[in-house]
Each structure stands twice: as C-alpha cells, then as structure tokens.
Amino acid sequence: MSNLSDIFSDYELLDADDRYRLLIDLGRALEPMPDALKTDATKVRGCSAQVWVYPMREADGRLHFLADSDAHITKGIVALVLLTVQDRTPAEILAADIEGALAPFDLKNQLSSNRTQGIPNMIALIRETAARYAG
C-alpha cells in the first residue's frame, strides 16, 4: 500500500463514487487475515460491519496488524487506519495522532455514520494494544 498522503492526493480529486472505489481497492490490498484469527477476541466492538484486528509483535518490537472486515468499504477504512500505525513501535503508535492523520479524508461527512461508527473503537483497540506492549 502507498502512504496516507499519496492516497489522500488521489482521494481529494475523486467524486463520491470513485472515493468508494478507492476505499474498496485499499481494502482488497490488505494483507490477508486467516479465518482462524477472526474470533470474538479479535473483533472490534461497536462496528456495524464485522471488523477484526490481530496484533503481532515483530522481533524488533514493532507491531504488525492483520485486519479484516466483512464489508468492502469498511475494510478500506480499516486499511487507512492501519496505514497510520503499521509496523511502528508501541511508543510511536501511542504518540501518533491517528485521528489527525485521518481528518483530511473527512470520513464522517463522506460516508454514512454506520460505516464510520467503529473507527474510534478500532483506534482505541490499537492504542490499548500498543500500551500493553509498551508497558
């Protein structure tokens, strides 16, 4: 996947339908998450679609996340969130302004509320995971 600023450069030039297509393409580009990891323990609460996030700690201490959703556009939003934290140290994730990085996409105004309602819960889960590994 590209970086967030490259994606936003494309995103801001698109109309609503093409923005949906871009999000769907981002979701398709996510690293596959094995079905065995899609459990109640990895499920993000409060999402209208099902979303799962599974953290893995790399040998160098960085966190790598596998994630998936059963809804195409939601999966694209998940991909955007992961671009802000993927393969960073727990301290870097805790210091990251994830909401600020996503703000230019104006997702709350671009998408229906049921597509974006789980974003804060996913971000909270990622931060809780980073805090657990940082401690």
TrEMBL record:
Signal peptide: none annotated. It comes from the Bacteria. SUPFAM superfamilies: SufE/NifU. Transmembrane segments: none annotated. Residues 15-128 form the Fe-S metabolism associated domain. Pfam families: SufE. InterPro entries: Fe-S_metab-assoc_dom (IPR003808). Belongs to the SufE family. This is SufE family protein.
